[in-house]
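Notebook entry, structure prediction.
Reason for the run: the old model in the group folder had no record of what sequence produced it. Starting over properly, with the input documented here first.
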Amino acid sequence: MRLNTNLMSLNVYKGYTKALKTQETAFNRISTGLKINSAKDDPNNLGQSEMLRLQIRGLQAAGRNLQDGASMIQTFDGALNSVSESLTRMKELVIQGSTGSLNSEDQANIQKEIDQLKEHINSVTKSTSFNGVKLLDDQNVTDNNKPGFITTSVGANVGELAKIPTFNTSTATLGKDGVGYLEEVNLLGPSSKDKNLEIIDSAVGSVNSIRSKYGAIQNKFESLSQGLGEISQAVENAESSLRDADIAEEMMNYSRESILVNSSIAMMVQTNKLPQDVLQILERIK
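New structure, fully documented this time:
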């Protein structure tokens, strides 16, 4: 027993400060939900966590790009569906207008509706856009078998790009050389019924081909988006395991350290009395 240095009390105090620090750490983790609240908590895992967070943001941005791309394709497919319906109606009118029982006035009225359908197709071509992008009104395209292209990002890494074809679905380009183009369909002109129908069928074939290409691209975008979502979820789980606190475990730690803190305080009270008790004994010996 030493009177000048109370080693027992010092040892209890060391245990008290350790328990208090551990309790404070557990409290911070419970209150924030994170086991890494500053660089000093775990420098190595903090660096890994930040890298994973950066990767997650990149994957999420790429996923949004793919979703936007799929939505864009869907928008233009809707426009092409409208064009396709107009072509179907136009074919019906050509067949109807070629009936020998119609007079010139009847044919003129049918041609007027055909012209309105042409205007509708041209309007759809020029007005359909997605966030300022027009895929069906590429003025540089004169043959829809030789489309233009725009590029869009489809991944989180450099160089992960996809090409989206652009077309010109105006009546001046729907059709093909050697057959004719949609703007030439005319019941009142020199073109025969068969010629008009051949032009319309050619235009229908072009529209179907374009829709097929866009459908394949949309499926690809949706598949890639799903894949990126799964990768992003896996990376988020990895990042969470590094940074997020296990609340149940931290509650247990906090409760355990609270008991140790309180017991240490009680022990320090007792050990601090020991020198006084010894002095009292010595006084009685005198």
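Summary: Strands lie at 148-153, 161-166, 175-176, 180-181.
The old model has been moved to the deprecated folder.
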